[in-house]
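Morning run. Coffee first, then this:
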Amino acid sequence: MSEFDYIEKNINDIREKINKAVLNRDNKDNNSYTGCKNKKVRLMAVTKTVDVDRINFAISKGVDLIGENKVTELLEKYDRLNKDRLEIHFIGNLQTNKVRYIIDKVNLIQSVNSLKLAEEINKRANQKNIVMDILVEINIGEEDSKIGIAPENAVEFMNSLKDFQNIRVKGIMTIPPAIASFGENSKIKKYFSEMYKIFVDIAEKKIDNINMDILSMGMSEDYEEAVLCGSDIVRVGRAIFGERKLFN
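And here it is:
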């Protein structure tokens, strides 16, 4: 099997598993995720260290959303990407001094984790006369090693963003703690369920300029469980492209 055949097979397999998870979620009795019924789940190809040829091949097979983690890597690849119908999200830890380099190159920034970063995005978007869509990153495991807003501070943080004219909050995202065992009764479901509750709680408060359209959670190891718990975007890299290697 060629490298490209491998990528195509993985994309098809992942889509099939996502579709099955959606059906299982929507058909469950006493469903805790009734607000998700019939909602589309988008597959994001995470392209960290993936060369442009493989990314463009994935795009040719219907991938229309990619996520990049590093500013320098995004800039190096950007001009060579097939951007027809392509949506690009920035999903890594974004330093304020790098915002200006990507503000007009991405459709959404998923990893907003501080008021300082939000202020810089708002400032740079204003300079470009655009409105930047963002997600607020929640540190659902409250780990010292991870960035993000503490769950108990999520609503307060959203309120601090409501008056920004060049930012539009579209939802929330998370990277849960690394857990070795996944399954219906595993700890991972606990974290994903907590994220969904936060998502619903913020939506119900109807804060100005705060839209809960997107819940981004789930990666290569746990995207099926994330879909079962209400995720709208799953961020999958290794399960599509294989183990990471330096891009060309």
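The longest strand covers residues 167-173. Good start to the day.
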